[in-house]
Each structure stands twice: as structure tokens, then as C-alpha cells.
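Incident log, structure service

09:12 report received: a user says their structure output differs between two submissions of the same chain.
09:20 pulled the input from the user's history:
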Amino acid sequence: MKASIGIALSLALSVALAGCGKQSEAPKADEKAAAAANDAGTMAMPAETKHGKGTATVTAIDTAKGQVTLDHSAIVELEWPPMTMGFAAKPDLLKDIKVGDKVAFELDWDGKAGTITKLDKAP
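09:34 re-ran on a clean worker, output below:
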């Protein structure tokens, strides 16, 4: 039974390919260039870096990795609701900060990752 189904599928595929009347061929150089030009128009371009600022509570710090996790309020400039997330930060920004501190911060967002550019204890 399986053999007859396999034979039938092979025959159907052969008939379908023969019916096309055209053998497959590699695209010519001009066609490749045109395809590449079309693809370039639809490729995702790097996102524009956006700047935002907010207030937060520090929930984790990893100075070795240059990372700080903040439970932040809404960030209007980025249209973000309140949430907890990690950001890259230079170690000198983290030196006087500890877990539990309330902070005011500024960040740059490139569409994929955020980098803290300013971090101060909140009054």
C-alpha cells in the first residue's frame, strides 16, 4: 500500500513538473541584482535611538556585567507602561547605587536594548 502511494505521488510530481514546460534554471546576474535591490527596499533599517527618563526602584545590580534592573514608572517618551527590566549601565553610574534605592534615570533605547545614561538617587 505504501509503495503504491509513493509511486502515485512520484508520477503526479513528474507530470506536474513536465506540465510546467520550463526547466528550472539559475537566475541570471541581472535578475540577481534586481532581486537584491528589491530586498534592500524591504530590509528592516536600524531603529532610531530614543531618549527617555523616569523614576524607579533598583531591584538588581551586576557591576561586573554593567547591568542594572529597574522597576520603573511609565516612560512617556518611549510610550512604555510601568515594568521591571534590565538595562546596560557604565560601572561609574552604579558605584553609589544599591538594591532598594529609589532613583531618577535617563536612558537611550535603540529598539532592542536600553542603556542608562544618567542615574541618580531620588530625593
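09:41 both user submissions now match this output. Likely a transient worker issue. Closing.
09:42 reviewer note: The chain has a mean pLDDT of 78. The first helix runs from residue 2 to 20.
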